[in-house]
Amino acid sequence: MLSRLTSSEVEKLYELLVKRALGDAAGEDYVEWAWSMQGDGLDTPYLRILAGQDWPFDLWEVERYFLQTLEDLKVELPSEDVLSRQCVCLIARSIVSGAIPPAEGCRNIARLWFYLDHPSALRNWDTLEDDLPMRGERSSDRLNSAIIEAAKALLASSFCAGGIMMTR
Length: 168
What we know:
Elements: H1 7-22, H2 27-39, H3 45-51, H4 59-72, H5 80-97, H6 102-115, H7 123-131, H8 141-156
């Protein structure tokens, strides 16, 4: 019988999947994810291989072991479009919870808005991103509040309806 990944395991997986969707996932991100999953008690042959990869990482090889690990865990990823939409919602949730700075989350959602071919539900994120200061500079409290409110509205919208379901 299939059981669901724990909420902690899903969260860790989606943190990696967000980086992957943004094109920011590096070999060490996959290896650190594998270590974390092992720390949570998961174990498969490919998870062990992934966790044992050494630097310098061959991203193609690491990605192959990652996908094989998901198959071993019976985790089916949704289509790239659905996965990217779910990543947007996870980023919005992270903004609201304070897990990531509003400016960082805004930039990431704006990048995914572009990747998803500009869905109207995310149009305001491009505008919000245009208002952000240069990287390294602090955004105003007013702008941060606007980003948090936009994230709350996004989470309450039909764009984020359905949630994240994964099984093992």
